[in-house]
Amino acid sequence: MRPWNIAHRGGAGLAPENTLAAFRDAMARGADGAELDVQLSHDGQVVVHHDWRLMAHVARQDGIWLAQPGPRIKDLTLAQLRAFDIGRAEPESDYARAHPDVRWADGEQIPLLSKVIAAVKDTANFHLLVELKCDGSDDSADPLALADAALAAVRDADFLSRVIFVGFDWRALARVNQAAPDARCWFTTDDLTKLGSPPLAPLLETIKKMGGEGWFPNYEDATPAAIALARALGLRLAAWTVNDPADMQRLSSLDALCTDRPDFLKAL
User: Fold this and answer.
1) CB 49, CB 29: distance < 8 Å
2) CA dihedral defined by 95, 98, 104, 106, rounded to 10 degrees?
3) Which is nearest to 169 in space by CA: 205, 115, 199, 210?
4) Which of 45, 60, 97, 257 has a CA-to-CA distance to 221 between 20 and 30 Å?
5) Is residue 166 helix, strand or coil?
6) Contacts within 8 Å (CB) and 24+ apart, 220-223
7) Are strands 214-216 and 184-188 parallel, antiparallel or unpaired?
8) CA pseudo-torsion sign 238, 38, 87, 161
9) In this structure, are residues 55 and 86 in contact, taking their beta carbons and an 8 Å threshold?
10) Contact call for residues 97 and 104 (beta carbons, < 8 A)
11) What was the pLDDT predicted at 195?
């Protein structure tokens, strides 16, 4: 059985990340789903955006790109956020050079999670990996408030069966599990070498004890030994962000691969 082809941020190597244009592109390419990041706006709306701040050289207002990272997402209302066009990177920017194959889409705005669900809902078996973008910093929304709001948006759209909640802040995932035992949560881990390469077995056992259905590691941490440990605990397995075809082949036994290039994965 092949892994799900999950378009990271909607397929950031092919379309402007975390936009409705990207999610529609992922569906058109036959991806099995998309990963996206959610935060809370100042007025409590669940919005889709990765960085804590409006992205320099991507967000523009009145045709002018931000030269530096803009205001924090949590400090702007939905109306203020939607005043920015995020559909095209500044042509000579590092971001544009790092994404040479993107088909830009002028006029794209930061979407609501509810709007993304509405856009993908009619595509059968298309799933969303909803990353609860939060941590302990001042830039983040309260993890519990974000978890509650995101879960409410998914429930209101009657989409819970096609959502998997992911995230690095396990407090938010625990909140989802507590509020909705039928929700699926795959616990994300950063590059474990950055964390001093902690013993893996206790980490995976903690995910299991916290009600996690799956483990969502950096692709380099998905070694044969790690995969075996996770499978022995009954955990589902995905990996981020897998962009090299050789790594896609190596990890083809996983349940899902999250990639900026769903076209590469589909070709395999």
Assistant:
1) no
2) 10
3) 210
4) 97
5) strand
6) 220/191, 221/189, 221/191, 221/192, 222/251, 222/254
7) parallel
8) positive
9) yes
10) no
11) 78
Rg (CA), the chain: 18
Beta bridge partners of 241: none
Q: Which residues pair with 184 in a beta bridge?
A: 164
Q: Which token pair is 108?
A: 């794209």
* Structure token pair of residue 72: 């924090």
Cα torsion 227, 232, 237, 240 to 10°: value is: -30
Contact 47, 112 (CB under 8 A): yes
Nearest Cα residue to 27 out of 3, 49, 5: 5
The structure tokens listed for 17 are 């990340």
Task: Compute the distance between CA of residue 92 and CA of residue 74 in angstroms, rounded to an integer.
Answer: 29
Per-residue pLDDT tens digits for 201-249: 999 999 999 999 999 999 999 999 999 999 999 999 999 999 999 999 9
**Helical axes 200-209 vs 224-232, angle rounded to 10°:** 30
- Contacting residues for 62 by C-beta, under 8 A, at least 6 apart: none
Tokens of 255: 């349940």
194 pLDDT band, cuts 50/70/90, is confident
